[in-house]
Design goal:
Blueprint: H1 7-28, H2 35-42, H3 46-52, H4 56-79, H5 85-100, H6 109-117, H7 122-144, H8 151-168, H9 172-185
Length: 188
């Protein structure tokens, strides 16, 4: 009889599964990736995968939730090291420019998921909306610290830059959006 699987092994296997699924979904799209490909990439048998996530939709939601925490955490770590409130808001776009220039950048994982599943999966739609709301609130906090009421245009410029860079494959929209935000903030 095989040894029981430890909590630590469960954690490691779940992380390996999420890593593999996230990479494949982001590189190729959710619908283009079958569970057999996820099995092969994660090294886990399908039976074990389905013990973690009863359906592919559950796996997609878990990938998006985990990516949200990491993505917004990395953004916050970059932005919050800047002491000046107006420069902090501009740092959002510096971070976006670095992200857009990364090899394999394919735009916003949440917009991509929405495009594929937003009309057919309430769970995915809810996760996409949650991410966008949290990102909006994160930006609003940083903008509020400037004393200006420009959170909505800053958010829309960030979102527009993300979508445009994802489609064009060019990181320039971050620089262009940054320049527009600098004008909104009255920053030279």
């Amino acid at each position: 009889m095989p040894a029981p699987i430890t909590d630590e092994q469960n954690r490691l296997d779940r992380e390996a599964l999420l890593d593999a699924a996230e990479r494949l979904f982001y590189e190729r799209g959710i619908q283009a990736v079958g569970m057999d490909e996820i099995r092969a990439a994660s090294g886990l048998p399908l039976k074990r995968i389905y013990r973690f996530f009863a359906a592919k939709e559950d796996l997609v939601v878990a990938v998006l939730k985990r990516r949200d925490q990491r993505w917004r955490g990395n953004l916050a770590a970059h932005v919050e090291q800047v002491p000046d409130p107006r420069e902090r808001v501009l740092a959002i776009f510096d971070w976006l420019a670095e992200w857009f220039a990364e090899p394999g950048f394919r735009g916003c994982a949440w917009i991509n998921a929405y495009g594929e599943l937003g009309s057919s999966s309430e769970a995915v739609l809810a996760e996409v909306r949650s991410h966008k709301q949290e990102f909006h609130e994160q930006i609003a906090v940083w903008v509020h610290a400037t004393g200006l009421s420009v959170a909505e245009p800053v958010f829309l410029l960030a979102e527009g830059a993300i979508v445009t860079a994802g489609i064009s494959g060019d990181p320039a929209p971050a620089r262009q959006a940054r320049a527009a935000v600098a004008m909104l903030l009255g920053t030279p």
